[in-house]
Amino acid sequence: AGAETVKRAVELDVASRFQESLVCYQEGIDLLLQVVKATKDEAKKHRYRQKISEYMTRAEDIKKHIEKEKQDGKYHKQIRIEENAIGYGYEKLFQEYLTEIVSEVWVEDPYIRHVHQASSYSLYNFLRFCEMLVKGPCKVKTIHLLTSYDEGSGRSQQISGLEEIQQSLRNYGVTLNIAFSSSIHDREIRFNNGWMIKIGRGLDYFKKPQSRFSIGYCDFDLRPCHETTVDVFHTKHTKKM
Predict the structure, then answer these.
(1) Residues 205 and 94 in one domain
(2) Does 126 lie in the same domain as 99?
(3) How far, in Å, CA of 141 to CA of 138, rounded?
(4) Three-state DSSP state, 224
(5) Given strand 142-147, what is the order of strands in its sheet?
(6) Residue 153 buriedness (CB in 10 A; 0-12 / 13-18 / 19+)
(7) MIT domain location, by residue (predicted)?
(8) Fewest Cβ atoms nearer than 10 Å: which of 99, 137, 144, 230?
């Protein structure tokens, strides 16, 4: 298993998919270290240790390369979520970027609207996203939301729902600034530690649950997803609205 994992790491490395390659190198090294512990043949142990040393050196080089890309504002990672895939709750996508220094978040999404829409739970999705921010480990103090007005009769319910979220966040020491734009099209989320995440469907990439009592209604990790693409960037300076 260790040899196969390292082989995959090398393939990803050659393809310049460095972030995925680093994960495979780290997993492969851990597996090979277990093999070394279980091997009694000293010659084999010596060969394994040499290989492990080579892989560790390459993994360290990749770490430095990724860090330089971040510093240069050139980092880019892409995640493809397949149709009906599960295991892509907000924590899965965002948690690794929500470091303790994150105190300010920008959300641009034109469809943070009321749940009267047959296929959209976007207000609830935004609330769930806010709950994740409140739980930490980051220390978010301000969330900026830029969205568009709901059409027709749904506007008053949209505003009322957002104001309720705003008031609830105040109880946790978090300020929610809400702004509306009629021309917004892009969907992106930015943290003040330099991370930017663009999701093709915004926060609303989950499918409608079959019922209020179906698995996945409460736990987004178990909710089937629509097909979408997630692009992660690191920039030196996070632009403000």
Answers:
(1) yes
(2) yes
(3) 9
(4) coil
(5) 75-81, 228-234, 195-199, 188-191, 104-108, 142-147, 175-180
(6) exposed
(7) 1-71
(8) 137
Residue 62 near residue 25 (C-beta atoms within 8 A): yes
Lookup: tokens for 235: 């920039």
Which pLDDT tens digit goes with each residue over 63-117?
Answer: 998 888 777 667 888 899 999 999 999 999 998 889 889 999 999 999 898 654 4
Q: How far is CA 5 from CA 28, 34, 43, 46, 214, in A?
A: 5, 14, 22, 20, 36
DSSP single-letter state for residue 87:
-
| Token pair in block for residue 138 | 């980051």
Express each pLDDT in 113-161 by its tens digit: 865 444 456 899 999 999 999 998 889 999 999 999 988 778 888 999 9
| Spatial CA neighbour of 95 closest among 191, 214, 202 | 191
Whole-angstrom distance, CA of residue 162 vs CA of residue 213? 25
User: How many domains are there within the chain?
Assistant: 2
Nearest to 81 by CA among 204, 194, 186: 204
Residue-range definition of the domain harbouring residue 6: 1-72
Residue for token pair 């991370």:
195
Asked, for residue 141, whether it belongs to a domain, the answer is: yes
CA–CA dist 98, 136 (Å, integer): 8
